[in-house]
What we know:
Elements: E1 4-6, E2 15-16, H1 20-44, H2 54-57, H3 59-87, H4 103-116, E3 125-127, H5 131-160, H6 165-177, H7 180-211, H8 217-222, E4 224-225
Antiparallel strand pairs: 1-3, 2-4
Helix pairs in contact: 1-3, 1-7, 3-5, 5-6, 5-7
Amino acid sequence: MGYQRLPDDGDLPPQRIFDWPCRAWHWINALLVVVLIVSGYLIGTPLPSSSGDTSSLYVMGWLRFAHLASGQLFALGFLFRVYWAFNGNQYSWQLFLPTFWKKSWTDGFWAQIKWNLLLLKLAPRYVGLNPVANVIMLVLFVLPSLLTILTGFAMLAEVTGHDSWQYFCFGWMVSIFGNTLDLHLLHRLCLWALVCFTMSHIYIAIREDAVGRQTMVSTMLSGIRQYRR
């Protein structure tokens, strides 16, 4: 059973939630997202021109290299995470598929909303992701990440040429949008979606760790979730 809300009363034993490949992916992916956001923003909004020889400074060259290298590693990590959803433990697929068709999930979703709005005295306790986190992960991380990868490789395909493997695999994105400007626009909108996700993810994780009744940050380090009364 991938989703499970635990009783509100009583002591609960620690439970292992995240296996080590999932935790490693999380922290490596977090670093890549930061590099992508910073380098992508500076590529779209360059810094003021620096005095000196351009070839020796190579500022935009290094920014572009960091962005392209991080983007390709990010894409490989995304493919690995999809693979691990099918080969990891029973909680690995929660990132991609909220069980919204189950009454227990919908009940937990509204309970978590009430907790976030400070309408509940006791925070719900879960095994795995809570239902609100399910939705946020899907809408603000998984879908924008997929679109970022597709549009990013499509824009790269226009640089590498029509005889490149990038154009063979992603050139169809150019045909859908018809022009590069719209590709850039969607790519940057996804960047801001990832910025919103990163800020909300950090805030909610720290808040749950501080005032909730289960560990969050340390769980992603050790894989084991501790529960409090």
